[in-house]
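Dear Dr. H.,

I hope your travels went smoothly. While you were away I took the liberty of generating a structure for the chain from your last submission, since the lab meeting agenda had it listed for discussion. I wanted you to have the full record in hand beforehand rather than looking at slides cold. The sequence, exactly as received, is reproduced here:
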Amino acid sequence: MNQRSMPRHEVWRLAYHKHRYCQHLSQSELNRRIRDIFLTMLTLTPEAKIGAPPITPEGIRWFELWTHVLEEMALRFGPYPAGLSEEILHSEPFPDFAGDLTAKVATKLQHLQSSNVFIKFGSPDYMLGLYERGAIRIQPASYYRQPNFNGAIRDDELALDVSLHLNRDAIVKMVSNPEDIPASQQSERLDINFASMTDYWLYCVTTDVGPRLFIDFEAQACVVIKDLKRFTRMIQQAVASKVSQAQFRSGAVTYIDPVLPCVTSIDVPMSKHFRYTHQHEHRFIWLPREPAASLTYLDVELGSLKDCAELIFV
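The corresponding predicted structure, in token form, is as follows:
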């Protein structure tokens, strides 16, 4: 049977056998990868049901990654579901897709026809302040490491780890003297930590118009910002009055697969682990003039957003 007549998942399994890029992961690391891929693939439909990614190039890629981790488990432990442990599902709570909030939020953003918006989720009081006065609190990146945050919010925004499985050919290409690599050397694990040289200020929004993020952030309200250029100008000017020497940057986040990175150099302030891909984050950052181990939050008011935004309560 040639690949053209094979089911797609079988083609993916064969491809993984040729490049078994997860084989160096510990069982705990593999469990976490399985969990990350599974959670990232979940969507919430307007009918308040759990769904899967659409059959687009991006969605198909997630199905391929899911097939690869299942094949790695099969190679280690035998046919599915061998090896799948409670750690995968119960290491921390899942988003509550069956709760009362789900039915309330399922259709709240359905009228938005495109992702050409910024959306900020939060409590009703904070979202009302954002809508009426442009009141925002800009936290330092180090703030998001707090262990009491749920998995959708908690992250080390100051560092990102990559772990590669290198075969002998790849190792030979990386060293200055290939003769130093013994013939018996088959593969090697390479762990790289990319770290920011400084703490920095960070404000995050999403461009995703799906309802899932209400659940992830346990939010009862959101502000939909429809004039992106104006909002960017307003936030830049407001923060400049507080930290005029800081370097301002904004843009879409690049999501990094830690075992299949798409780049060789990672811009930490504008990058995140691929487990957050579904958040479609757009961020505003301010790098201090001098490197700082820790910073404090900034409270600013941009002015009313009533003429360029929509306030939604659930």
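Two observations you may find useful: The chain has nine helices and 14 strands. Residues 100-158+196-313 form one domain.

With kind regards,
E. W.
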